[in-house]
Structures are given as structure tokens and as C-alpha cells.
Amino acid sequence: MLGPVMNLFGFGKRSFGSLTEQEILGLAISQEEDDARIYGMYSDALRDKYPASAKVFDEMAAEEGEHRRMLIEMHRSRFGEHIPLVRRENVRGFIDRRPVWLVQHLDLDIIRREAMVMEAGARRFYLQAAKKTSDAGIRKLLGDLAEAERSHISLAHRLGLTHLPADARAEEDETARRMFVLQYVQPGLIGLMDGSVSTLAPLFATAFATHNTWDTFLVGLAASIGAGISMGLAEGLSDDGELSGRGSPWIRGLASGGMTMIGGLGHALPYLISNFWTATAVAVLLVIVELWAISWIRYKYMDTPFWRAALQIVLGGALVFLTGILIGSA
């Protein structure tokens, strides 16, 4: 029961700074193994319709295999045959990857963006890892691998797709956009979803149990502030930004906590209206607006088809909303 909660706050995971040089090599080896498998699955998914793009991913998988071989040889020369089992999920700071490689009929543009994010993350990892090592040979190898991953970031050009960065400045703009999504949009969206949905049940349960608008407002206010503090702490403590490149945990925590409070207060404020049914009608209208806004943000920034996002968010919100009404009317 405590495992998921501990992982949410980063407990039970090692900090990157606490890893030994041997463990850093073990982590790098496991990352290269995972990346090679993912590129292989991308290649298999694209082979029938996009054979040229599939070939690029075959080459990238082979390159990751070569990186793995180099890392294993370095480990063997420095520490012997036994490689410690350290994976990204055991270390704080890594971004959880969406398992898009398991989705059938993947969109080529989504695969490209996911691959670019993977490689940018791998380069950032090697740069940070090189700073943590004092062994000259290991440091050189990690630096060389960082440069190799940097060359991979031109994957967009190698795939020959349309609407891709045409020059270095455009690539920098694309990178800046991804970082904006990771640092502000993603934590803010999670907070907005939590605040807009999780506070529905206590708010409307209180409303229909008491028919007292002031009491309902106080419950909504308390739920929104409490949820905002909780989400802000969870986001800030989950990742220091060193490996993920997601920036300051304070900024992400404020974005997540602030949007959580906004999401909850949006449908609590109407209960400052003294007439119960008028306040409830306005609150319900605002809930509908909030849920559709969340669906649009997921569509705009998170590569989720709009109607799928709308179905997931609106259906979930409707269930929580009805739960509150049923409990309050019991």
C-alpha cells in the first residue's frame, strides 16, 4: 500500500548523486539496452508503411547496441564481470516514459517526437554522469556518448519528414517547446485535472447534503487549498530536475499546486451566490468548461486525440460529479 505513495514522493529511490561510478555504468548499460529495444519496436511498427524510416531506427538500435558494448567493456576493465542492476525507475529524476511503442498503428510524427525526447534525455544523462565521475577513462567515455546522442538529435532530418526543424535555430525552438511542456504544461495540467475532478465529490456532496451555499463554499475552499498543497509537494519532491531537465522543482511545484487550487476554486466560487440553485447551475456550467479546457490542453500539448481526451476527462469528471450528488442526497 505504501509503495506507490513512497514512489510518488521519490522515497524508496536512489538520488543520482549517491550512485557510485560502477552503478552509473550499470545504469547507463540498462538504459542503452532499453533504448535499443524501443527503437527496434519502432522499426517493426513502421516497416510496412515507412521502410526508409524503419531502416533509420534499425541503425539507431544498432548504435545503441554499440554504446552498450563500449560501456560493458569499460565496466569489465574497471570493476570486473558483475554489473550492478540499476534501472531508471530506481533513480529519482528520470521522466516516466509513455509506452507508446506498445500502441498499434503509431503515428510517424509521434514516434519522431518521442525518439527525439529519448535522445535529448540520454545526452543530458551522460553529461550529468560525466560530472559525477573522477575516473578519466569513464569520464571520457561518458562525454563521447553524450556527443553521440547529440548527433542523434538530428533524427528529424534523418527521417526526412515534412514540417521538421530546418536549421539549428528551429531545432532549438523545438527543444525549448518540449522543455516548456515538461516544466510548465505537464505539471500544470496534472494539477488542473486533479483540482477540477477530485474536488467535485466533496463539493457537491456538501451542496446537496446541506443546501447551504456558504458551507459548501468553505468545503470547496478547504479541498482546493489542501489538494493544491498536496500536489505541489508531490511534484516538487518527485524530481529535482537534474536528470530530467524539467527545471526547478519549486517552479513545477508551484505550477502544479497553483493549477490544482484554480481547478478546485473554479466551481467553488459560485457558492458565494446566496441562492442555492443559481449557485449550483453556475458551478455545473463552470465544471463543463473546465473539463473541456483540460481536454483541449491534452490535445494541444500531450499528443492525445481530442475526442479521446474529451471522453476520458468528461466521463471521469461526470462519474465523480454524480458520486458527490448521490452521496449528498442520501
TrEMBL record:
It is found in: Endomembrane system. Coiled coil: none annotated. It is a multi-pass membrane protein. Pfam families: Rubrerythrin, VIT1. Its main location: membrane. SUPFAM superfamilies: Ferritin-like. Residues 23-158 form the Rubrerythrin diiron-binding domain. It comes from the Bacteria. Signal peptide: none annotated. GO terms for cellular component: endomembrane system. GO terms for biological process: intracellular manganese ion homeostasis. PANTHER family: BLR7895 PROTEIN (PTHR33531:SF10), RUBRERYTHRIN SUBFAMILY (PTHR33531). NCBIfam families: FeExpMbfA (NF045676). This is Iron exporter MbfA. The gene is mbfA.
